[in-house]
Fold this protein.
Amino acid sequence: MLYPQRFTQFTREHADTVAALLCGLLLFLGWFALHLGALGLALLLLPAAYVIGGYESAREGLTTLFKEKELDVDLLMIVAAIGAASLGLWRREYHLIIDGAILILIFAISGALEGYAMARTERSIKSLMSLTPDTARVLHQGREAEVSISQLKVGDEIVVKPGELIPTDGIILSGYSILNQAAITGESLPVEKTVGEEVFAGTLNGYGALQIKVHKPAQSSLIQRVIRLVEQAKTQAPPSQEFIDRFEKGYAKVIVVAGILLATLPPFLWGWDWETTIYRALTFLVVASPCALMAAIMPTLLSGIANGARQGILFKNGAQLQKIGKVRAIALDKTGTLTTGQVQVYKVIPASEYTQIDVLKAAASVESSSEHPIGKAIVQAAGDLDWVGAIQVQAMPGQGIVGIAQEQQVFVGNAVFVQQYVTNLPEELREMAQSLEEEGKTVVWVAKNPTPNPSPLARRGAGEVIGVIAIADEVRSQAAATITRLKKLGIEQIVMLTGDNQETAHSVAKAVGIDRVYAQLLPEDKLDVIRHLQQQYQTVAMVGDGINDAPALAQASVGIAMGISGSDVALETADIVLMADRLEKIVVAMHLGRRSQAIVKQNIVVALGFIMLLLVGNFLGNINLPIGVIGHEGSTVLVTLSGLRLLK
């Protein structure tokens, strides 16, 4: 029973693809039967190919005709195909039925590809919805009870345990923890949160239990606003799509009206007989059908998509390949995009009489007992050194950590914390620490007290500073070179967007060569920046990796996500994914986009040129239907082969 269910589900989810495959199979079998002389079998198989492959196009075309009073290319293709088949039956030139079936097959394949592109919206919204838990632990009269998120009310008190996602926005009533909220706010380092501070839904709680008071309705939480922004941006049709729709409808109207006139007027105007008139009208429908125009675009874009895939660039649809070639401005997120998103030891500065190794070994001895991301970065940096884990380790939330290592007290933390245990902070280290902090680095002070003591907190003021350690989110090695290449490519405006503070933002921007910086942004702020850029530059690309980037990625003309570090929703929302997180591939994608534009323009000129020649030849009576079909199919093959040049 399992396999029939899976087959039914597959056919339901991929109905357009199944229809195109069946149409192609029946077309081949019908052609083969006709080739063998089995006319009856061919006339059974080919109509089935027409019905299966053309049903969706016929339904959409007739719906547009009757409901919107508009003609579109879908209906034109069906009329042309049926006209060719009818003429083939009438004149017993059965190969014309094959030509009509080929026209339908081309449109069936196009419809299947369009269906896959349109399915992105719902998937991206579902990914967003999965980022918050369905229930929350509400504290009522000292007891915990799980309730649905939708049932939460302002004033409810909820409990969040270590390692759990925050279910809704709220204010901490009790507890202390470290929250990873980079995906929501873009902050590069996990943030320490304590009583009175706000927490956001969808952020990950660290090691501390929190009691939170709901201060706004669940539907007004930051993550829910992100969801609504993505939905809104996705439903806004780009101007290029509207232009294509208008062109298609206008083209279909002209061809259908011209076909009707050509099928009725010549006997009265020029004395043609009715057989010749109908023959010329049907030939007109075949040669005027826009297959060559369709082939001028899709094979080119598919070739570009395949080329990009080989180089680690995933284009989710062909339209975005064209759009990225038109980009005039680009916005890049900082954390996880221009930087790696992983905190690391940036610099170790020892005090006099000590070495960098001394500082790292001392800090790692106590930080090895810590779960703090900064502590993990220090331990990783000291991985190859010979150090021993400290004992009697005690962490001071938001301040630092202290313990005993090799019969010495070791203190690691911020300046205020360490200053309690030392005689003074060396002036030269103060200046260096201040300079590093102005550059956006996090500075950790390391001190020790050579006198062992059973209680690491008992002896104060007798220690000495042995050095400072600067922690930073590492800038990607290729970031600066990529920005330089984008400028050489002619990109008019490059900006950086981040939820981080001004100092860190400007530090990273200076390192990679970006002049315009927007810092301390929430998701809706990033969206506003993208909209402002679109007013100035029309076609704008956005590069990001977090949940907080999703609305901006959706609003941008081209959304680009980092494939490895990117969140699920960013990957689903974006139009292009850099599979290996290699920023330099943005430039490659733009080159592909510009080449695809050039080839598409060339193909359109060739396709229109063939159509005009065939139309003129048909009107003058110099071509018959077989020649018209050959010219029509030949132009289609020619522009298809031209499009395949992008595979190189």
